[in-house]
Write a structure and sequence with these properties.
By secondary structure, this protein is mostly helical. It has four helices and no strands. Helix 1 runs parallel beside helix 2. The two termini are 37 Å apart.
Amino acid sequence: MSEAYERDPFLLAYVKWHYGQGLREFFGVAGNFLWFVFHFFSFKLLLKTLLAPWKRLGENYEGGLDLKAFASSLVINTLMRAVGFVTKVLVLSVGLVSYVLTLIFSFFIFVIWILAPVILLGSILLSVAFFII
């Protein structure tokens, strides 16, 4: 703890830190985790290129009246776009599940953080009561 808390009694300084600076740091860490998951799965890029071919694979149609070359190019390009769409949807799904799980985990840690001093104090009182009785 910093010098600002040194003037206060220990318990008061701890409570100030726990519900002040500690909570700010917790939200910073939780935000960093959410930022990481969002950028790790590249949500923005995947949504922007959802219908683009997989790894830019495809056939170039040279033009002319060659129906065989046109059909071949059409099938290959459609297939590569379908593969890209399915792959990107799967990655987006895994990313969304990861983001939601990170959000839920952060919420549970937040609840534990808020209740930690109360739980600690209750545990100490119960243990003292156990030894007195």
